[in-house]
Structures are given as C-alpha cells and as structure tokens.
Amino acid sequence: MAAIAAVVIALVVGGLATPRTHLVARSMVVPVAPDEAWNAVRDSVQGGSMSFAVREEQAPRRLVADRLDDNLQPAGAWSWLLEPEGAGTRITLTQRGSIGNPIARFLGAYLGHTRQMDLWLRELASRFPALSATIEVAAPTES
User: Is there a domain that residue 6 lies in?
Assistant: First the structure.
C-alpha cells in the first residue's frame, strides 16, 4: 500500500509541477489541391472517429473547432490551417489544451500531447490512397 501511495503522490506532485496548458502543432503535406484537402478535413471533422464542435470556418484555408471528450465536453481547441505547397497542400493542425487533473496533466506531458493529433492526421492521410504522409512537428498557428 505504501508503494501505491508513493506512486500516486509522485504523480500528483509531478502534475502540479507541470503546466496546466499546452500548445502543440503537427503538419503534413497531402498531394491534392487546397479545395480537395479542405473537403477531406471538413468531412473528417464532421464524421471522423473524434467528436468536434466547429467554431469558425474560413474555407478553404482555416477551421477552428473544440475537440469533445467522450462526455461531449470541450477537451481543447484544435485549428487547421491549409496552405498550398508545391503540387499539394500543407495541413497544419494546432492544439490548445488545458488539463486540470494533475495526474492526467503529468501523464499527458510525459506521453506527449500529440497522440490524438497524430491519430487524426493518420486517419486523414488514409483518405488519400497514394499518400505516404509524414507527420512533422510544426510551429503552432494562432486560433
């Protein structure tokens, strides 16, 4: 029991020492024009495996939405920026999040805040069969 209590205390203390908010971004280039990339992003936001509540749309360039948790409560703001790049489109996904629970905060910081973003981008990339996408670290965009 003492070992379990020590682990829980360490997680709480670690979480309290970890910033409550985070700002992270990822990007990838898809081999399609911005309009087609926009449609894929919009379709994935509306009907993908994750739930979102759209706050702002500036087609075909920018989309801002709240990521909803399993209880349909906001779990951070995500923004997508689409920019032409070569013959394709660079999609930059930025997440602004806040984690109140210190244990979840510590685990999020330790495991990385981009796991859900990477999953979403891989899901989007699967919509383009010829695509071998590389997800990259990106500079966060303003939302």
Answer: no
